[in-house]
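FORM 12-B: Structure-to-Sequence Request
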């Protein structure tokens, strides 16, 4: 089985929005990545439409259709009536654009829908159905087959308009390839399973092909308008892609039945869950709200929205000449069978174990908040049991755990820590910070920081992004010295401040400085004294030396005189 729809791994941000949107929780979120479980998915496309990160990845059949168009066999298009709202409400122009792409011919799927309405009418007139569910939507059919098998008894055993038309075209053009063109992803899977068509193109894919080939429908309009005569026969089955469209395709109504329309999977699920309690209902069902004009690959959203699209299809359905063509003899009967939902229901003790792993020990602990993407905590526990979800997806539990952990770390930190908002209101403060600032923790929390500390640095941090690390600051009230670090909380206008108490170090250092100063003074005095002594000694020595010198000179002179006298 090929994969029809998934998410691009690189774009997934693990936000669970797709899971929240999925009506049947067919998405696994493992290893920070969302993936669609094809076996459980009804291909409604809601999840990919909901993803804000453009992670949608639909199987692309452009290449295989191009291959068909380049092949030997002629290719015929079956065009869903929703084309009127996604492109333009003129089949002649649309067909001429398709021919430019290489299609041999194109017909309206509404021809098949007309046959299907005829079969519904016959089933209703047979009167054997307590309720009859009619749907052209493969997502609804798959929803019933997978999740509401009891409702299969009410599902009309008739193929969809696409399959009916595929069969009709195959009968008429046995040597041709048939390509369905519509707004829906699920039609790709239905076509593959039915074998009635050779390929399916979504409106998005076709639009890309038009663009690539440089085909402008507006220009096409001018080219065709001059020559086109064919507008197609008027056909009430062109109403199919709008709400109450199937009902509007009936020529007459059975008085025993109430004809109602249900759109959107949430409403469809509610009806299917209660179908046994209803009676005398003909229910047309569409997975998409506003029906197929709002299909996951429709382009009508960019063309004025759903009401505009409804109005366009209604107007288009009224165009063309009246036709009373006889109905086909082709068998369009199809008995839909139950499909297996492979998920297991865990025993109660396993559910309890999984719930306990996220701190849910009694029903009051189960918040059922939906943040994990599941509607209830038990639903999520069952998904965990089935390997489709992870314990850590419980957002409140993980937040509580993270907060508890950070709270413990902050409260037990030997450093003072506090956080303030942009008005410098203290949001959180630990015991040590309160003690350093000389306040009580309970009174400081919620109070303005300005009461306890000069706010200049904090304003500079807030408005001029001036942060600092380990700045020596004296706290006014207590006279304590701290090494202060100021930072902004990432992506928030909050500041947090860490204060390391360095009062003892500062005191010790200042004591040391004092001792050093005193020692230096004493040393200086001693040196000065010594100098004086030295000078005194020197001067004394100087005097003595002079006297000695004089005495010695005197002595020498006396001796010299004596010697001279003796020689004479
Ligand atoms: S919506 Fe789903 S696919 Fe998209 S980012 Fe969120 S988790 Fe991923
Ligand atoms: S396509 Fe629909 S059913 Fe499938 S996973 Fe997405 S939301 Fe669920
Ligand atoms: S409390 Fe947790 S498990 Fe329960 S619904 Fe919320 S996020 Fe999911």
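FORM 12-B RESPONSE
SEQUENCE OUT:
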């Amino acid at each position: 089985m090929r994969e029809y729809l998934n998410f691009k791994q690189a774009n997934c941000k693990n936000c669970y929005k797709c899971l929240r949107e999925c009506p049947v929780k067919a998405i696994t979120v493992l290893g920070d990545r969302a993936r669609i479980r094809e076996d459980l998915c009804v291909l409604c496309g809601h999840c990919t439409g909901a993803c804000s990160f453009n992670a949608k990845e639909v199987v692309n059949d452009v290449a295989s259709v191009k291959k068909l168009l380049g092949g030997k066999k002629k290719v015929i298009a079956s065009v869903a009536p929703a084309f009127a709202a996604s492109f333009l409400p003129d089949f002649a122009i649309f067909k001429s654009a398709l021919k430019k792409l290489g299609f041999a011919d194109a017909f309206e799927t509404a021809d098949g829908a007309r046959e299907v309405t005829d079969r519904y009418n016959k089933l209703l007139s047979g009167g054997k159905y307590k309720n009859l569910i009619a749907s052209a939507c493969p997502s609804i059919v798959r929803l019933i087959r997978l999740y509401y098998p009891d409702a299969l008894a009410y599902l009309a055993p008739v193929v969809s308009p696409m399959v009916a038309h595929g069969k009709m075209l195959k009968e008429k053009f046995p040597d041709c390839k048939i390509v369905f063109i519509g707004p829906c992803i699920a039609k790709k899977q239905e076509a593959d399973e039915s074998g009635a068509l050779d390929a399916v193109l979504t409106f998005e894919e076709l639009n890309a092909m038009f663009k690539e080939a440089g085909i402008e429908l507006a220009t096409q309009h001018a080219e065709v308008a001059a020559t086109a005569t064919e507008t197609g026969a008027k056909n009430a089955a062109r109403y199919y892609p709008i709400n109450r469209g199937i009902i509007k395709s009936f020529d007459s109504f059975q008085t025993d039945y109430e004809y109602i329309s249900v759109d959107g999977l949430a409403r469809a699920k509610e009806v299917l869950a209660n179908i046994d309690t209803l009676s005398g209902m003909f229910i047309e069902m569409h997975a998409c709200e506003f029906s197929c004009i709002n299909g996951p690959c429709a382009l009508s959203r960019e063309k004025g929205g759903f009401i505009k699209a409804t109005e366009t299809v209604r107007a288009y359905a009224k165009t063309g000449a009246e036709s009373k063509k006889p109905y086909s003899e082709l068998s369009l009967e199809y008995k839909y069978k139950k499909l297996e939902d492979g998920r297991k229901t865990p025993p109660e003790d396993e559910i309890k174990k999984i719930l306990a792993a996220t701190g849910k020990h009694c029903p009051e602990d189960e918040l059922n908040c939906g943040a994990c993407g599941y509607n209830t905590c038990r639903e999520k526990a069952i998904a965990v049991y089935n390997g489709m979800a992870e314990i850590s997806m419980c957002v409140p539990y993980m937040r509580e755990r993270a907060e508890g952990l950070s709270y413990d770390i902050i409260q037990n930190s030997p450093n003072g820590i506090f956080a303030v908002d942009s008005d410098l209101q203290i949001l959180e403060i630990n015991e040590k910070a309160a003690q350093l600032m000389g306040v009580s923790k309970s009174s400081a929390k919620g109070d303005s920081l300005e009461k306890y500390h000069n706010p200049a640095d904090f304003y500079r941090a807030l408005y001029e992004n001036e942060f600092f690390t380990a700045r020596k600051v004296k706290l006014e009230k207590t006279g304590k010295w701290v090494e202060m670090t100021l930072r902004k909380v990432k992506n928030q206008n909050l500041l947090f401040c860490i204060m390391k108490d360095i009062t003892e170090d500062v005191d010790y250092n200042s004591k040391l400085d004092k001792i050093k100063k005193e020692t230096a003074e004493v040393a200086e005095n001693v040196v000065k004294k010594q100098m004086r002594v030295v000078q005194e000694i020197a001067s004394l020595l100087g005097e003595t030396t002079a006297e000695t010198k004089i005495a010695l000179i005197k002595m020498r002179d006396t001796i010299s005189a004596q010697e001279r006298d003796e020689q004479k």
